[in-house]
Specification:
Elements (H helix, E strand, L loop, with lengths): L2 E19 L5 E21 L4 E5 L11 H13 L4 E7 L10 H16 L6 H11 L3 H6 L2 E5 L4 E5 L6 E6 L6 H7 L11 H10 L2 H7 L1 E2 L2 H7 L1 H12 L4 E4 L6 E5 L5 H9 L4 E6 L3
Parallel strand pairs: 1-8, 3-4
Antiparallel strand pairs: 1-2, 2-4, 2-5, 5-6, 7-10, 7-11, 9-10
Helix pairs in contact: 1-2, 2-3, 6-7, 8-9
The structure holds 4-diphosphocytidyl-2-C-methyl-D-erythritol (CDM) and adenosine-5'-triphosphate.
Amino acid sequence: MTKIYEKAPAKINLVLDVLRKREDGYHEVEMVMTMVDLADRLTLEELQRDQIVLASQAGFIPLDEKNLAFQAAKLLKQRYGVKKGVYIYLDKQIPVAAGLAGGSSDAAAALRGLNRLWDLNLGVPELEALGAELGSDVPFCVRGGTALATGRGERLESLESPPQCWVVLAKPPINVSTADVYGRFRASEVGVHPSVPDMLAALREGSFDRMCGALGNVLEKVTLAHYPEVRQIKEVMTRLGADGVLMSGSGPTVFGLVSKESKLARIYNGLRGFCKEVYVVRMLT
Ligand SMILES: C[C@](O)(CO)[C@H](O)COP(=O)(O)OP(=O)(O)OC[C@H]1O[C@@H](n2ccc(N)nc2=O)[C@H](O)[C@@H]1O
Ligand SMILES: Nc1ncnc2c1ncn2[C@@H]1O[C@H](COP(=O)(O)OP(=O)(O)OP(=O)(O)O)[C@@H](O)[C@H]1O
């Protein structure tokens, strides 16, 4: 029996700017996103009966139609008239509702994996378009790497990888709803917007210092106002010596970019003092 394995890495937003609210309720964004090597793992196997079955060791995520990986399988079956079943095992490692696009990356991995398992022969552009039907972050998760994302997040332009560094992720024990954060966001209240051109120049030059200087996320204003613990983690990470510190996506996870390995133990131990979920990972290049 064929088994397909797919890795579903977490993403971070190096820049997240929101330009305006659109007529359709979504927001027009400009984001620079990249992948880190904290990943869920999916195993996909053909089932004898025509059914989608999802299982996971994680007790705290839905395993039915609410799961984005399940939705990805259902979408492919409907769109291409697939009469086969699939068993998907999801080894969940990415924290949930964390701003790390865990669910979106699982959906993207399911699209990639089922394209192979069911011999659908879809190209990356087609998989990205299907991904956009599942969520704004899914097309980027299909493509991977580093990209500029515009529109509601689905229009992508691949970029060079960021200069290699360590990424420390710290997630406070709260779950933040992306819809809530966008709902509370007011474009008119943003003072200074982050500079996307500056981040693009940093990546072109391969300059770690310039990348740290160009980090910015306008959703921080909303999330930090409601969750003081996110602001506190940012302050602690900065004090402990991370070179650049930012909230990812709609939060609550905060990431710190660190160039010197010798700094990591102090930052990790300092954070672990009051935050249980801390990860030290690398950027995926
Ligand atoms: C915060 C980010 O994760 C940053 O990468 C994304 O912008 C959100 O991506 P996502 O979680 O895949 O978002 P979706 O599942 O498409 O939408 C969740 C909810 O967020 C809001 N939403 C999302 C994306 C966007 N550009 N504008 C929005 O206003 C909408 O209210 C939507 O109902
Ligand atoms: N495969 C999945 N893994 C985790 N959560 C999922 C999945 N499918 C659906 N969900 C639901 O989606 C919600 C958001 O989870 P997810 O981990 O994708 O958020 P996130 O990391 O904040 O995403 P983003 O950064 O794209 O906003 C959770 O409440 C969860 O119940």
